[in-house]
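Bug #2210: token dump truncated for LolC/E family lipoprotein releasing system, transmembrane protein?
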Amino acid sequence: MHLVWLLAWRFRSNKRQNGFISFISASSTFGIGLGCFVLILLLSVMNGFEKELKDRLLSVIPHAEFKSVYASGIENWPAEVEALQHHPEVIFVEPYVNATGMLQKGNNMKAVEMTALDPLYASDGVIPSLVSSEQWQQFQLDENATMLGIGLMQKLDLVVGDKVQILLPQLSEDFSLSAPKTLRLNIIASLDMGGELSNHIGYMHMSLAAQAQNIKYGAQGIRLRYRDAFSARELTREIGYKLTPEVYMSDWTINDGNLYQDIQLVRAVVYIALSLVIAVACFNIVSTLVMAVNEKQSEIAMLKSMGAKNSLIISVFMLQGTFNGLIGTIVGVIFGVLAATNLAAIASFIEDLLGVQFLSGDVYFINFLPSELNWNEVYFTALIAIVLSILATLYPAIKAARINPAKVLGH
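Reproduced locally. Full output below:
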């Protein structure tokens, strides 16, 4: 084995090696390293987006909603809420009323999706953490209090302490529209939830919204959050089929799942595309070794005439080619890990240097470039690069072993 390593290193570091072969060898190493670097970095970004999606967006929006099929709401909803609170996969349950209407301040109007909450149940949720304790206490005491998304407030030029009107459509018994119901609300807090949510969402009291929309039983539906947000689709159907009242079932993957699906799609595309980049770089190893075999036919013939076996020749050239892949993989993995763990700082530096912002908080639910390194993906990337590098050495190594010493030395 020591002889194999010695010959492989001697062939690789031969001073008389053709300059073009050296260039192709270096380009293959660079290509493999670049492929590993970019693959690790982009997968870390995808992991970062997925983590922020779960920690930020999915901490605000409900994972599942069960809405009554009747305009009168859910009868005996407190009992249903209590039963759901004992489900092992459910961590939060609350009744709600949807109040979609027009928010008006002077001559300015804007569509708004108000979610009406019962402060008694909402106190254990996420909303209180988005405002100060004084503001939440004020919301509990004032039935006309409202909390609006910061983007919505900016578009209507509102500030905390203002009074606004909300116009809610009214549906009569024959399902014809009548004059809208007007409510006057006091803005006690602004909410910054990131992205589009802050531009059209607000919260108000459930009792006020139920009364304004003639919801007899006081709650239009029940919404909840699971321990694992990504199991929402299956759990929602499992729970929904067991509920006593007739309800429409909905989970976050229906309304907001496109973002998660996009992340998974981009992850798959990145895996395939950059694995092909690494594979193309490995083809340069084939070219390098084929030219090296042609250049060193006499040395190979002499080794075989001295008794070297075909297995030795194959091992020498496989090891020589694997050097390129191994060096490229190690360098690419090191720089990829360093870049992935410091991506936020690097992106912030580039933004300050160029005077641009990669992600806008007005459009996306975050305003920075997230990154989360997954070591299993790092190991898998390195494994792919090394395996492809070894496979690329097979043809040239076998070709070298097939050289006929008598034919080469005879000339």
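Output looks complete on our side. DSSP finds 17 helices and nine strands in the chain. Marking as cannot-reproduce; reopen if the truncation happens again.
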